[in-house]
Amino acid sequence: MNLDEAVVIEKFSSRMEADIAAGLLESEGIETLVLADDAGGTYPMLQFIRGVRLLVAPQDEAHAREILKAMETGEDFQVFE
Fold it and tell me: How far is Cα 43 from Cα 48, in angstroms, rounded to an integer?
């Protein structure tokens, strides 16, 4: 994934939440990147203040948003081939 073109699809208050969402997206074949400005993990409280960003490639944005919405609401989602 080209970082310059990556799209932030969600902002979480902890790396753990972002990693769970990233794992779900990756299980559906969507490449993800989790970014946190927390001084390399030295100051994890900054994750809550600044947020942890979940990024995907632009071509995966719509599908990724649909999956995350289904995760939040508990609905089923259809996998696009």
Answer: 10
